[in-house]
């Protein structure tokens, strides 16, 4: 029983097309709030711009960038930043993985420990630096005392060029390893049980299980955690600035610290902007990789759910 | 049997070492905050001493007793600033961000995907990139060193976080449930308020909590865009520690006060925190 | 004037046309069963009618007036979902009361109406429970109560008995028609189970390829399916389709070699001669005998499977074709196991004839 009731159908108009745009207005404004200064920074980076010499402000296009290529201070910054990033991520990954493996079985002790281990992550990195500064104070620092007991005297911590990097890496590890632990613990607990049960039945040795089963399955989480931390580490500011403001000398002048000093101690806006742009290029490349990886991980978790 | 005992022993030792490393600094600074200057400077340092509340009293009242005479401090004002900045930023982000997250979750519109990508990719961008020009702008328009200016810039920290976490929770609500509610005769506003928001409650709480902690712990934003009147504790503590004549116990007390809120929140709501922090390994 | 009508509704998902120019009318109080395999677009059709989703083209009319400019909250259409879609944070009472709250009904009237419909659906003893504390059967009844409580003009049911256990399904199949009659609602009932279609529908629409391939009373769909797909879907065990080519006998009647057995075709039409056909034999129209019968096909009985109150027998015809027969529970051969020679009487009067190429029924008037 089919018959045409009225004239041929008319195209429907979608009701409330404007609704999603209205709702997401704040997000849009946030985007603009990011993009406007960003563009400004790009412009600054292409200029010779020093607040102390306002009349000399002019476009020198890629002059700042080219100057960097021959500047010792720049390559020092690159070297220190990369070293810092690699050391922190490397140490934290190993430490974090080890602790996550230690805590993977659900027990009262392990659960309590997991909660307590979040604490360092909740401390502001700038404050964490100050805490460690107190502990490493040459006059009354408890750590100095413990070192003396072990026979090491006059350990420079953050005051000596030889040990400054070690000190900030230590603080960074203290703050951020818990993040890796949380992520890897979630990953370990989300792994399917069957391969492990099968391996146990087959009498496979534990090292084999770890390297050939656990590690490969954990790889997405490990990669996610490493990329995330690397993105953070290469632009670290709070910890280093709080500890030494980039010193002693230029031992710890990583990208953002150097950019800050250039802008606010030397008023060299153009140079500072150029430096941050280079850093941005690095983090943009890294974050694109990270986002792809993270989306993959999310899709996989969704599919399993 | 023997190897299991050895194994368990090693495991126990490892756990103790790990616990010690991560918790000792906090515990030691707390201890220090109850020590007199004399106790702190004593060598060898000892965890046994007669505790004193003088450090805290001095901080809270603003009148410090130093070796060279009386000093005044406004550290409590820094603490207040931290509260105001963090709470206000999170509240605004929630009010604006939760509906936006709903729009991203329920409506597939092209601009939305572009916005989501921009926000996400700039989440990892170096802050100084944005702060440097902003400082110059702010000085021009008089927003430098104001709550208003800083709270809006804090949105760059809190808003993307809330958008990202809450959107995932909204996406997890079956569209059929909201469709059923609409078919019952309720408008989409009612559906949002009575169905979507309550069901996404845990996610919204987790996001708000994390956003508060991130805002509280922020250092570089306030350093560059603010000065003494809006300084939060993160910046204030550094100024405190470099100021001369301040007793070490008082410094320790200042540090304790500055981490107390976030640590307390973390302990109280650790379940929410871990969920939010796991970066969507489970929920996204 | 029709109560509910669709006029040329179409909806595309990507390249696929899920709903293709669908039009039909329903009288007030009628129950229409929309039947079809999974994924064919039955739920999409319901979403278009209820307003949850907008079709690309076409009109939905209630009492002759288009409702396309109304959102789901103002159309007066109620829907019960396959997964119940109960509000997890509200009690059963609150779930059921929801449509009344939106209409500003007084609190006392809400309470009495909720109790009334809950009693009708026999869930009045679990009204204070949360959905997660209810069994699937109770969840389904709560969902139904919610859609009935405000006496909707039109009720859409999306395979409501799918996620419910067999016993409850059986009970509901008897209860639902009574409920529909009592509320005098116009009902569209979506299902993949042809038995439900036969039990519940005044009319049955078979949805395939975005259109109603057949829209008729269930009995008609069963007896006179329009094509092989409809015949196949509407029957369990599925209809046997045997390829054959009828030939004309000298006396003008038609004969055919049916799976290796010569059979006469009474009521046959001469235009079928020489044409490639598929003969449709419903398993329930094949009678089995342990001894030879006149005109019966000799087959090998290969297997017997109990099937609720019937047995399904797997037969092998002389030319090797597999044929399914369905016999009553207490049939003498029901204990037979393994290879055994039996005789199958085929009632050619009830056989269906389809074109081999197109699948279309050759019996259509």
Could you give the order of strands across the largest sheet of chain B? Answer: 1-2
Q: Count the strands of chain A?
A: 2
Give the helix level of chain B as a range of percent. over 70%
Quickly name the level 1 CATH class of chain A. Answer: Mainly Alpha
Shape of chain A: globular
Number of helices of chain A: 14
Q: In whole angstroms, how far apart are the ends of chain B?
A: 44 Å
The name of the CATH superfamily of chain A reads MetI-like
Poorly predicted residue ranges of chain A? 1-13
The quaternary organization reads as heterotrimer
Overall residue-averaged pLDDT value of chain A: 85
The count of helical stretches of chain B stands at: 14
Structural features:
heterotrimer; B: 284 residues; mainly alpha; MetI-like fold; 2 domains; two-stranded antiparallel sheet; 2 strands; 75% helix; 3% strand; globular; disordered C terminus; C: 365 residues; alpha+beta; Rossmann fold; OB fold (Dihydrolipoamide Acetyltransferase, E2P); six-stranded mixed beta sheet; five-stranded antiparallel beta sheet; 8 helices; 21 strands
Describe the structure.
The complex is a heterotrimer of chains A (305), B (284) and C (365). Chain A has 305 residues and is an all-alpha fold. Chain A has 14 helices and two strands. Chain A has one domain (73-304): MetI-like (MetI-like fold, Orthogonal Bundle), CATH 1.10.3720.10. In chain A, strands 1-2 form a two-stranded antiparallel sheet. Chain A is globular. The model of chain A is unreliable at 1-13 (pLDDT under 50). Chain B is an all-alpha fold and 284 residues long. Chain B has two domains: 2-60, no CATH class; 75-277, Orthogonal Bundle (MetI-like fold), CATH 1.10.3720.10. The relative contact order of chain B is 0.14. Chain C folds into two domains: 4-227, 3-Layer(aba) Sandwich (Rossmann fold); 240-355, OB fold (Dihydrolipoamide Acetyltransferase, E2P), CATH 2.40.50.140. Helix content of chain C is 23%, strand content 34%. Chain C is built from eight helices and 21 strands. In chain C, the strands form five sheets. Chain C has a six-stranded mixed beta sheet, with helices on both faces. Chain C has a five-stranded antiparallel beta sheet with strand order 16-20-17-18-19, with no helix packed on it. A four-stranded antiparallel beta sheet of chain C has the order 2-1-4-5, with helices on one face. The model of chain C has no long low-confidence stretch (mean pLDDT 87). The interface between A and B is large, with 96 and 93 residues.
